[in-house]
Amino acid sequence: MGGEQPFEGRLRLSTMLRAWGHTEGQTNVDAQRLRELRMDVAVAYAPRPWLVLAVNLPLQAREVRDVSLARERGWGLGDIDVSAKAFVWKDREFSPDHLVSVVGGVKLPTGPRLRARDGTALGLDAQPGSGSVDPMAGIAWQGFRGSWSFLATTLGFLPTRGREDFRLGASVRTSVAAQYQPSPRWAVRLGVDTRAEKAADTNGEPEAAGGGFIAYASPDVLFSPGMDVVLQAGVRVPFVNQLRRVSSTPIAQVSLAYDL
Fold first, then answer.
1. Mean pLDDT value of segment 132-142
2. What is the maximum span of the chain, computed from C-alpha positions, in angstroms?
3. What pLDDT is stored for residue 40 in this prediction?
4. For residue 193, which of 2, 21, 182, 232 sits 20 to 30 Å off, Cα-Cα?
């Protein structure tokens, strides 16, 4: 949806491609490796200058491999999420230096349940959808000073129970970033993204892996090849990992946004 306040009637089309992975458990003992390539396609519309509505649809390809080298692969449409952002305060009406907004949304269980060739359902980690309804809410601040802009967000996620009575743990995710834009065509951004989460559980029993805290250093480069088009490329590199029995890879991502 962007951090800036939109003009009324703006329609934004965007897509983001991400590659990431993690490994749960102990190497050569009970390790399970997950790798995912994910493309999100999103539409955001501003019916009012203070309100943005968005719909996001992911297409995911997942591979899960355990220590025995057994492997599962699944790909398909994931769970749609819908969200809204309302700007609730600004320091002045024209060209504000500070914006405060509240965000709310929900992920819906629209992803199909994938099955192997013999008809058995793939494992939960190979599925693109969770089968749960997951609400989220938070607050964001955006600041501007000359060629610099700043962003800080805090979002809370409260997943519900999904397939096979599995539930992801509640989490709080934060992001702070500073962006320097020396010209209309390009900018650089550096941020820190964090996630603190409760361990997932099945039938009320906590999972052996997961839960804890992780922080990523998040550099990005942004380029505008033409009016109303922005291309962004970056990486999220974990530099603090206090997740229990989980090691995470860097997250590579590239995105494209176009305003109509």
1. 97
2. 62
3. 98
4. 182
Report d(CA 67, CA 65) in Å as an integer.
Answer: 7
Residues 6 or more apart whose Cβ sits within 8 Å of residue 197: 168, 169, 170, 171, 172, 210, 211, 212, 213, 243
Instruction: Express the helix, strand and coil content of the chain in percent, nearest 5 each.
Output: 0, 65, 35
**Nearest partner of 150 among 95, 107, 186, 191, judged by Cα:** 191
Among 222, 161, 153, which Cα is nearest to 186's?
A: 222
The domain made up of 11-259 has a fold known as: Lipocalin (2.40.128)
C-alpha–C-alpha distance, residues 106 and 38, integer Å: 19
- From CA 186, how far away is CA 229, in angstroms rounded? 11
Query: Could you give the CA distance from residue 42 to residue 39 in angstroms, rounded to a whole number?
Result: 10
Q: Where are the domains of the chain?
A: 11-259
Q: How long, in residues, is the chain?
A: 260
And the tokens for 42? Answer: 């999103």
The answer to pTM > 0.85 is yes
Q: Which of 14, 63, 17, 64 is nearest to 38 (CA)?
A: 17
Task: Provide the CB-side half-sphere exposure for 24 (13 A, CA).
Answer: 14
Q: Collapse the DSSP code of 57 into the 3-class scheme (helix H, G, I; strand E, B; otherwise coil) and give the result.
A: strand
Distance CA 240, CA 243 (A): 9
Other C-beta atoms closer than 10 Å to the C-beta of 240 total 12
